[in-house]
Amino acid sequence: MSHYEEVKVHGYDEFSKAVSERKGKDIFAYFSGDKDAQGLSWCPDCVKGNIIILLRGEMFHLPEGSVFFYCQVGESWKDPNNEFKKTLKLSGVPTLIRYGTPQKLVEEECFKADLVRMMFTED
Amino acid sequence: MAALCRVRHRWKRTNCIKLLTRNLTGTFDYDLVVIGGGSGGLACSKEAAQLGQKVAVLDYVEPSVKGTKWGIGGTCVNVGCIPKKLMHQAALLGTALKDAQKYGWQIPGPISHNWSTMAEAVQNHVRSLNWGHRVQLQDKEVKYLNIKGSLVDEHTVKGLTRTGKEIMLTAKNIVIATGGRPKYPTHIPGAVEHGITSDDIFWLKESPGKTLVVGASYVALECAGFLTGIGLDTTVMVRSIPLRGFDQQMAGLVTDYMEAYGTKFSWRSVPKSVDKLASGALQVTWTDKQTGKDQRDTFDSVLWAVGRAPETKTLSLEKVGVKLNEESGKILVAADESTSVPNIYAFGDIGEGRPELTPTAIKAGKLLARRLAGQTNELMNYDNVATTVFTPLEYGCVGLSEEEAESRHGKDSIEVYHAFYKPLEFTVAERDASQCYIKVVCKRGGDQRILGLHFTGPNAGEVTQGFAMGFQCGATLTHLMETVGIHPTCAEELTKVNVSKRSGLDATVTGC
């Protein structure tokens, strides 16, 4: 049993709903381009083998009782006015955020294990 | 020249001693340990790391009396420049909204300001800056330790974590950049228990309400300025003169404007005591020095802005022999930021005689890192530094005040050109521009070298920055006259200044 909850969601509405159901929790979210059945994506960086392994490797450092969202942004991403951009201020994928705080890692920053660990362990 | 010689000899001497130490004890944990993660400390440590040095930066924020604390970045990011300028902007927008109606905007109903909305937005921005610094430090491979550092010997720093755990670090060089904190007037009963300082004002979740700001420094005036601008009943209590150290004619224009715009001033007043009433309000008793009588009024908040004290008490400086200026308590430093101990350096607000400004701390920090890495001999140039006071009517300046110029060169050897101008934007808005003013203090005769340049008006910081470069290049009045202005702007009035104080002529700018 891990000390954190892992949630997989697809698209903004699903993400938003799942977040509202977990009020008061320390929420981390990794936003990625959609993956197809073969595991390929229009955002190759987002699904690069080593990024997922890297994240998995650092999840040990997640605070007790926290929630980790793996969110595929869906087709809506093509729309420049999509909810992710407007409401969550996402500038690109992949992005890793600590929900409700200014803490975020964008694109290449997500590939640095020490930065991911810093976000997971920061007070 | 003398300073450079001193540096060379010290370097030679230090090199010998260090070689000896290293042979006896082996290598140090770090090439450089920086105590203080503010504007100076961060710039120095990041630069050093980029130059291949092994660096650690220690940052620790002792909570304020009221319990306020913040993340990495120091005073500027957390409780200074950044939140100040944002709240100043909030206040300016309030004025702009009033002006907007004259420009045709239909604004339904009265406009009110919500402190919590502004505070949350400002605090969020500050937190994003804290995070940005953390990512940068990690990226540049600077070891960051959230511990309270103190000196053990000239190569050893002791760190205390929040939980009281002790960590020891050894370093070839140590840099102290711990800055300062606001002073409390501890001799005034109730001051510490009931008052707040600039450490607290930006982090309040609720509006401070009717506020008494005690002090007449730029901190006091800037805070009082934005508090008034967002609609709060604000009083400034001044013991003697406003903006000590600044050109006093300009300081007067700044306070005149503030008074005209609703900030109350209690001149020549000294607070005696602060009591908390049953209602929760604060009753302040003060002495009016002119009448000798005591006065009393109630406020929701009392903000002390009566000076800043250097953060040196917990560094154990005496133990290691780092000498301080007895009066100010700041660390005595040479032109190369070195202290009385060969491999210990200090700069930023903590250095005696240094400007308490972010850009000078950043530049000095970078140059120090470069010198320590053996990349340069360049020393920090602290002259000709331009500054701006972000009061409701902003005041930008570079160079000498009129008084300083008179004192250094003699009244007969200087020529002061000046002009009262009206920003175009004020016309339609029907705003009073009585305090919008320009003053260029020059050396008399010849090309009339500019000794000091002063400007009150909108966007003073933006206006002054460009002229600061000219000043740095040794600009003369002739240069200024030869510069064609950009029209229509306030800044162009500087290029058109032609009436001298000596002539006694009317200095009001008329028309195009």
Automatic annotation (TrEMBL), chain A:
Q: What Pfam families does this protein's entry cite? A: TXD17-like_Trx
Q: Which residues form the Thioredoxin domain?
A: 9-122
Q: Where in the cell is it found?
A: Cytoplasm
Mind telling me what this protein is named? Answer: Thioredoxin domain-containing protein 17
Q: What is its main location?
A: cytoplasm
GO CC terms on record?
Answer: cytosol
Ordered alphabetically, the record's keywords are: Cytoplasm, Disulfide bond, Redox-active center
Signal peptide start-end: none
From TrEMBL, chain B:
Q: Which GO terms describe its molecular function?
A: flavin adenine dinucleotide binding; glutathione-disulfide reductase (NADPH) activity; thioredoxin-disulfide reductase (NADPH) activity
Q: Which residue range or ranges hold the FAD/NAD(P)-binding domain?
A: 30-365
Species per Swiss-Prot/TrEMBL record: Hucho hucho (huchen)
Keyword Mitochondrion assigned to the entry: answer is no
Source organism lineage?
Eukaryota, Metazoa, Chordata, Craniata, Vertebrata
InterPro entries, per the entry: FAD/NAD-bd_sf (IPR036188), FAD/NAD-binding_dom (IPR023753), FAD/NAD-linked_Rdtase_dimer_sf (IPR016156), GSHR/TRXR-like (IPR046952), Pyr_nuc-diS_OxRdtase (IPR001100), Pyr_nucl-diS_OxRdtase_dimer (IPR004099), Pyr_OxRdtase_I_AS (IPR012999), Thioredoxin/glutathione_Rdtase (IPR006338)
* Binding residue positions for NAD(+): 215-222, 307
Q: What class of enzyme is it?
A: oxidoreductase
Q: Which GO terms describe its cellular component?
A: cytosol; mitochondrion
Protein name according to UniProt: thioredoxin-disulfide reductase (NADPH)
Segment forming the signal sequence: none
Chain ranges of the Pyridine nucleotide-disulphide oxidoreductase dimerisation domain: 385-496
One matching Pfam family is Pyr_redox_dim
